Amino acid sequence: xAHLLLSVMGAFAEFERALMRERQREGIALAKKRGxxxxxxxxxxxDQAAELRQKAQAGAKKAVLAREYGISRETxxxxxxxxx
Length: 84
Description:
Elements: H1 2-34, H2 46-57, H3 62-69, H4 73-83
Helix pairs in contact: 2-4, 3-4
């Protein structure tokens, strides 16, 4: 009997969590429509991004560029991908 009760409680908790996540997604979608939910601001200014691309084309290592601009290597690659 205890095992059955525990299983029912677990299923109910899982269902409730799914409902919360669904409501959260709906709220984010509505906020995006209103223009409130825009995401994170860019890490670099446009002139810094252009400078980063020039240095990368000149052969500078991505890790060195990331440290110089205070961003991650993944962000460096994202800026370089925007260029192509």
